[in-house]
Write a structure and sequence with these properties.
With about 250 residues, the protein is of the alpha+beta class. It has one domain: 4-Layer Sandwich (Glutamine Phosphoribosylpyrophosphate, subunit 1, domain 1). The chain is globular and about 40 Å long. The model has no long low-confidence stretch (mean pLDDT about 95). It holds the Pfam family GATase_4. One of its GO terms (biological process) is ergothioneine biosynthetic process.
């Protein structure tokens, strides 16, 4: 499992995004309040991506944020209007490495997957068959999230609508692999798209700032939950929610 967060607004230190709030992402790594499914710890790695109009850059480590002696120094020196951050709880049998930690970045996008695909790797073979061979041969890690990202990135390169691609991806995996948890997070630095499918997801907006997170990072008023089985399209000035069409249902 994982906990993830994306934020767009005025420039902010990348490290502040993981540490901000009484229930910050760093705290959620060891004491989440709304974790579903098995496991409560997300200490197998973390990553932070930051960007804007010139694309994304990232910092990833195969350890929890508080165990990284360089993270606070590096991330505290970086400011950006858009940040995505993730703490990772590795699925049993999947590698513990920096390359397996989200966010995955490419082509102006940052991506994270909170959850898992049941029946891995066989359940994702139909999706993998649609990914160019060169992309499969250069996956960052042998994990379900990297395959989901490779499929999504390939379709995004064809200028397909991400608001249509995320529900398609969730529905296809949910129908082929019942019980999968598919909370996806995608951003191009100007807006955030996210799905709630088998995990919690909340959002908060104030003025020119929007935050989308696995769970609220504090007890401030204004946090709203995204209903399970829905897509969120969020910008600093507006938020839209859409039901994900699927013959499957999110796991409890």
């Amino acid at each position: 499992m994982c906990r993830h967060l994306a934020r767009i607004g005025g420039p902010i230190a990348a490290g502040d995004v993981t540490a901000r709030g009484a229930h910050s992402l760093a705290r959620q790594a060891h004491a989440p309040r709304f974790m579903r499914g098995t496991g409560t710890l997300n200490v197998d790695g973390y990553g932070v991506a930051w960007g804007g109009g010139d694309g994304w850059r990232s910092y990833r480590r195969a350890m929890p944020p508080w165990a990284d002696p360089s993270g606070e120094t590096v991330l505290g020196a970086i400011t950006a209007p858009a940040v995505m951050a993730v703490v990772r709880g590795a699925t049993t049998g999947m590698p513990l490495s920096e390359s397996a930690c989200a966010p995955f970045i490419s082509d102006g996008w940052a991506f994270s997957h909170n959850g898992y695909a049941t029946g891995w790797p066989g359940s994702l073979e139909p999706l993998a068959a649609e990914i160019p061979l060169a992309d499969l041969m250069t996956l960052e890690a042998s994990v379900d999230s990297a395959v989901l990202w490779a499929w999504l990135r390939h379709r995004l390169r064809s200028d397909e609508d991400p608001a249509a691609l995320l529900p398609e991806l969730v529905a296809r995996v949910a129908e082929a692999a019942p019980g999968s948890r598919m909370n996806l997070l995608l951003s191009d630095g100007t807006h955030i798209l996210a799905t709630a499918w088998g995990h919690s997801l909340a959002w908060w907006r104030d003025g020119g700032e929007i935050v989308v997170a696995s769970e609220p990072t504090d007890d401030a008023p204004g946090w709203q939950w995204l209903p399970d089985g829905h897509l969120l399209i969020a910008r600093p000035d507006r938020v839209e929610t859409i039901a994900i069409p699927s013959t499957a249902s999110p796991p409890p």
